[in-house]
Design brief:
The structure is a single chain. With 198 residues, the protein is mainly alpha-helical. Helix content is 52%, strand content 0%. It is built from nine helices and no strands. α5 runs antiparallel to α6. The longest helix has 16 residues. The model has no long low-confidence stretch (mean pLDDT 93).
Length: 198
């Protein structure tokens, strides 16, 4: 017997009922709880994608996060470091914004800003080799998070291309991603998740 899951009955949102939205809200919690798994599955798409770099994009992400972890950064910082380049597969021309958008509900404004802006700051190390302005980050000089982003790139991001570095495996970071993504800090949908958890 083919069992179809219960679904809302409207064909346009303007015709939705309380019953429809109670049903949909019930599904939201379950879907939200599986977000860490979906994020890690997407991150694994970077495996084997070198793009000419000394290490593939997954190893770069793992190495960046491992360096941050070994330096004593908190879990939210380490997860930001792990996911900072997750947008590479979908946002060839704006990968920092993709990763930052995924992180935004779960991390501080500072960590979101670092993720969102790291591409410009990382350019300090190579833009001049590809016809760009390595000092493009200077447009942000004076911003409260300028130094934090510069430090992220210097200590963790630009340094994470060493094929011999002993990075922690993705499984090491799974519990951290789960904890950071368990509770949104800022999201218009956060209350739905809270209601489901209660």
């Amino acid at each position: 017997m083919n069992h179809q899951p219960e679904r809302a009955q409207f064909t346009a949102m303007e015709h939705g009922t309380q019953a429809d939205w109670t049903l949909i809200s019930g599904h939201f919690g379950q879907f939200a709880r599986s977000l860490p798994s979906r994020v890690l599955t997407h991150l694994s798409l970077l495996d084997g994608d070198y793009g000419g770099f000394p290490v593939d994009r997954l190893q770069h992400s793992l190495q960046t996060a491992t360096r941050a972890h070994r330096d004593g950064r908190d879990e939210a910082y380490v997860v930001m470091a792990l996911l900072h380049d997750i947008g590479d597969t979908l946002g060839t021309y704006n990968h920092p914004e993709i990763g930052a958008a995924m992180l935004r509900p779960f991390v501080s404004e500072e960590l979101h800003w670092i993720a969102n802006t790291h591409g410009v700051f990382q350019g300090y190390y190579f833009f001049h080799y590809i016809g760009g302005d390595r000092d493009l980050r200077e447009q942000y000089r004076g911003h409260p998070h300028f130094e934090a982003c510069a430090e992220f790139c210097e200590k963790y991001d630009q340094a994470a291309f060493d094929p011999a570095y002993d990075s922690a495996p993705l499984a090491f970071f799974e519990p951290m991603v789960g904890r950071v993504f368990a509770r949104p800090i800022t999201s218009i949908y956060a209350k739905i998740g809270e209601a489901e958890a209660a």
